[in-house]
Inverse folding.
């Protein structure tokens, strides 16, 4: 089998970084993806039988997408050609497809691996379609973004999507042990001394990325004195521990969703955790302030009207203090919103009113509610019969109709039995009953 992509099983082993040298060469060497390639799983059975299909591999960095693409080619006894959507354009795509056509004419199959495929535009993605349909290429696209949003439907319809997971810390530790023991490709000939706790620390710092863990181990090995990776060495290696976070991708939207739903579920511990995760990942604190203001309006609502004011105060506090002091105000807001009583009654009332407006169109304003600034308008009856509520006993003209004729008796706002809305419900129930009785008496 010929691997035409530079840097993949081609250069002298000694020149490759540890993560590349330890790249799995068989399905049994893959760590952490048992749900996809474990014994008896459909993809594994297909690969072992040589029945390969075009596919999209969706998963976070360092989870094994490139490795799996290489193994697809190996198990299918096909040539392997790799291009990166970051560094390649349409001419590179056409060149790769032309090479695949040549192989096809000679009876050879080609696995065309496209890394970061979501970065190709629609025209570039469409270029693969006829070659996939004819079987010229076995297309393997790798992406860290949700294919449903980033890839066009025509390409998705011709590929199966396999979702890969971030590798667990335990599985990463297993990969580190393998690298330490392997004398041919790994660090086994160095006689390194490292304890289990240190390996777990490296695995944790890698944040689900096997490649990153192996890179950290290799750096630690280079810095180790007398072959011993101790706490001082690890402190140097792990000084900059960054977490996975994409300010415009799947991780971003998943985490803001988790924050919002934690607040809605009245879980202050989860709310402050997800807020901190996003701040730690570099999310704009003002974006979080804006989103939590939305939560105060949508999910807390009139059950605790102070939440709205607190959200604006926290927003203002951050703008005045900046980071990191202002972030404490955001944390306090997240906790308060989570603990506060919840009501989406106003939110639902607005949505119901909006749907009614859309359905019923431009209903006329009742004549007695219309403004009458001119003699002509007064002569036409504008404002006739209007009752000034402050002059009525009790301060409410109960028999006065305020909705259009077609909507009389319809309700939009239904307070919940939580927080301040308990009192609002009591008052509104009594008021609506009094209005209904007044209408009946008037009729």
């Amino acid at each position: 089998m010929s691997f035409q992509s530079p840097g993949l099983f081609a250069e002298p082993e000694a020149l490759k970084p540890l993560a590349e040298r330890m790249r799995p060469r068989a399905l049994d060497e893959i760590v952490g993806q048992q749900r996809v390639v474990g014994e008896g799983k459909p993809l594994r059975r297909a690969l072992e039988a040589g029945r390969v299909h075009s596919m999209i591999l969706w998963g976070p960095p360092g989870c094994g997408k490139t490795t799996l693409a290489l193994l697809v080619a190996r198990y299918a006894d096909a040539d392997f050609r790799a291009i990166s959507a970051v560094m390649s354009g349409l001419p590179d795509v056409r060149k790769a497809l032309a090479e695949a056509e040549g192989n096809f004419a000679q009876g050879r199959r080609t696995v065309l691996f496209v890394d970061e495929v979501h970065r190709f535009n629609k025209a570039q993605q469409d270029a693969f379609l006829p070659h996939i349909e004819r079987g010229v290429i076995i297309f393997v696209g790798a992406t860290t973004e949700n294919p449903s949003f980033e890839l066009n439907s025509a390409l998705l319809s011709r590929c199966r999507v396999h979702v890969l997971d971030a590798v667990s810390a335990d599985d990463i530790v297993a990969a580190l042990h393998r690298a330490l023991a392997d004398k041919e490709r790994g660090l086994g000939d160095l006689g390194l001394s490292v304890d289990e706790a240190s390996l777990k620390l490296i695995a944790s710092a890698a944040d689900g990325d096997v490649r990153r863990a192996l890179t950290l181990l290799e750096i630690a090995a280079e810095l180790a004195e007398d072959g011993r990776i101790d706490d001082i060495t690890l402190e140097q290696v792990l000084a900059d521990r960054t977490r996975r976070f994409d300010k415009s991708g799947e991780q971003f939207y998943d985490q803001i969703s988790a924050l919002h739903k934690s607040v809605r579920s009245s879980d202050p511990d989860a709310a402050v955790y997800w807020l901190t995760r996003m701040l730690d990942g570099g999310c704009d604190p003002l974006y979080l302030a804006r989103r939590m203001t939305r939560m105060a309006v949508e999910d807390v609502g009139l059950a605790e009207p102070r939440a709205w004011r607190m959200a604006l105060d926290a927003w203002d506090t951050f703008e005045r203090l900046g980071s990191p002091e202002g972030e404490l105000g955001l944390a306090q807001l997240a906790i308060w919103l989570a603990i506060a009583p919840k009501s989406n009654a106003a939110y639902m009332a607005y949505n119901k009113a909006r749907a009614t407006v859309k359905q019923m169109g431009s209903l006329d304003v009742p004549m007695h509610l219309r403004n009458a600034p001119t003699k002509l308008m007064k002569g036409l009856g504008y404002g006739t019969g209007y009752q000034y509520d402050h002059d009525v006993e009790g301060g409410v003209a109960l028999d006065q109709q305020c909705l259009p004729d077609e909507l009389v008796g319809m309700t939009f706002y239904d307070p919940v039995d939580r927080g301040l809305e308990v009192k609002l419900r009591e008052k509104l129930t009594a008021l609506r009953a009094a209005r209904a009785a007044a209408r009946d008496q008037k009729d």
Remarks:
- Strands lie at 55-58, 79-84, 110-115, 137-143, 160-163.
